[in-house]
Amino acid sequence: MSKDEIDHLKIKDLEHRNFRNDDFWKSIPGFASVTRGEFSDHMWQLKNSIRKIDQVKKLLGDRMSKEFYDDMVAGQHITPMNIRITPYVFSLIDWNDPLNCPLRKQFLPVGSQFIPDHPMHMADSLSEDEDSPVPMLTHRYPDKVLFLPLTICPVYCSYCTRSRIIGGSTESVEKETYGANQKYWDDVFEYIRQHPKIEDVVISGGDSYMLNAKQIRYIGENLLKIPHIQRIRYATKGIAIFPQKILTDDEWVGAISEVHKLGRAFGKQVVIHTHFSSHLEITKWSQMAMDRLFSEGIIVRNQAVLQEGVNNHVDDMVLLTRKLGLINIQPYYVYMHDMVPGCEHFRTTLSDGIRLEKAVRGTTAGFNTPTFVCDLPGGGGKRNVSSYEYYDKENGISVWTAPYVKPGKVFTYFDPIHKLSPEAQKRWLSENDRKIMIDEAIKKANL
Ligand code: SF4
After folding, report:
1. Architecture of the domain made up of 1-387
2. Distance from the CA of 207 to the center of ligand 1, in angstroms?
């Protein structure tokens, strides 16, 4: 991203107030006769979700070229994530230029996009398994835990940080998924009960959208009854990719709302964390879904992932931030992409993250401006992108500490190699040079 791009926002002042509300799905040959009523129904969306590339072909007919179909087939041999996409997002993809469409990039992998993983990548980049005292739970920060009660989602994102467990196995990854299995949930509640320092529980996975109303209540009530639990957050990408559920699944919304009311009665927070990464995901449907949650008094915050070709341009990030603010979603975090397999093409440099943060700050109110963070490989937790100890931009190596989370430990994050100079790219080819460069960067951090 050049300085020029940062200085010259191309979006119009009030562009964020435009919400798409046309019958956009009708441009998909297979959905041409679907009525607005059908498209609005969450059961219709679920039933017609796309899970195979042959379905893509069938729905698009002549609108999909043979080259693109072959590219998708090739992608299936490499991708760590299965395909699952709602008709809503599928129809929002620009099928005139699918290769470059930010929505297609996030959910429908193609073979030509993949590049080799960074040599320092890790399947469990955030060391969630290492910090797991009981199955389905990560306990890293003293007062907060991450509870993963399920491994399924309404869509599967190609950039998923938990590709090691989410969705089913693919040709390239064998996974131990557990669906929405209640087997260990009571053990998780017991662990939390036994650890009075814990105040905050993130319920993620997987996606809370795929918990049924009974499970939403079961988890919420059990957690809220623990005296030291003060905050719970249901994490779901659902609002971004499947707003119809909020609008028509009264049982699910009713369950969230009940848990929220119970929380209020106890003086505790129950909020939703969602996951819009592109402003193209936001339509009139998103606004209507948020109107419903807002009228229930439920706070929603957003966590986006910084991705090349999706949101790494300042106009796209500003539009995303402003649109979220307008529909009462607080833009909370933008993450540097984790160093997980099959995602090198999505990753950007730390410099890009820092530049983007500078550009976005000031374009809307401070409380609606996301914090750009790097979730440190190896389990250091989230750190502000500018808070590195040392950054060797030439070789793409940043050095970090997390004094409270892991005292004394040194963490490293790496820029994608294909973004470095040809000389630096060459250095990364040698295992020995790699070690020297990393050791040198850590030494220069002077810790
Ligand atoms: S919704 Fe979240 S957990 Fe599910 S595939 Fe996407 S990023 Fe992964």
Report:
1. Alpha-Beta Barrel (3.20)
2. 7
